[in-house]
Amino acid sequence: MRLEINGWSSKITFSATHVIPMHRKCGRLHGHDYAINMSIEGEMGPDGVILDFISVKEFLRGIASELDHRVLIPGRDRGVTVNKETVKFKIGDKEFSFPKGDCIILDIDVASAETLASFVLQRVLDKVKFPKNVKHIEIGVDEGRGQGAWTGKDL
Ligand SMILES: [Zn+2]
User: Fold this and answer.
1) Per-residue pLDDT tens for 81-127?
2) CA gyration radius for the chain?
3) Which of 23, 43, 58, 69 is catalytic?
4) 1 burial level (CB within 10 Å; 0-12, 13-18, 19+)
5) Active site residue 103
6) How many whole angstroms from 111 Cα to the centroid of ligand 1?
7) Which of 13, 33, 79, 139 lies at a CB distance of 3.0 to 4.6 Å from 121, suitable for a disulfide?
8) Mind listing the pLDDT tens digit for each residue in 26-69?
9) How far is 24 from 16, CA to CA, in rounded Å?
10) For residue 148, how many other CB atoms are within 10 A of its CB?
11) SS3 65
12) Which of 75, 139, 81 is nearest to 113 (CA)?
């Protein structure tokens, strides 16, 4: 059986700015509305549910609020330099400079929906304790409505 949390209807959303280096269109600084979705597979317990997902939703909302109204900085990109007050992001012959407080520096190579989904999945695996009847979880990050990337893991 499968439980699904839709980020748009559950208001697990954030707005953020990113740039995808060397991409024809996304190589220019721009923003999206994002949603974090989740799917949980497992056996129904004696109480008739797989999992009380209210706390999971709250946890995902916490991640969304960390990312909300930030510039998403891929911390592993060699063009990124983090200073005391600013974050510089050099891409080819252009360089962005952002106030550090406006940024979130993520341990990812590029700020795509794919890597954001992996980032959220890892955070969930690190911090959420699932009951034994939960067998598989998936995280999807939508970059705008109707397009997103999913990744998952067996528990
Ligand atoms: Zn984009």
Assistant:
1) 999 999 999 999 999 999 999 999 999 999 999 999 999 999 999 99
2) 17
3) 69
4) exposed
5) no
6) 8
7) 139
8) 889 999 999 999 999 999 988 888 988 899 999 999 999 999 99
9) 20
10) 20
11) helix
12) 139
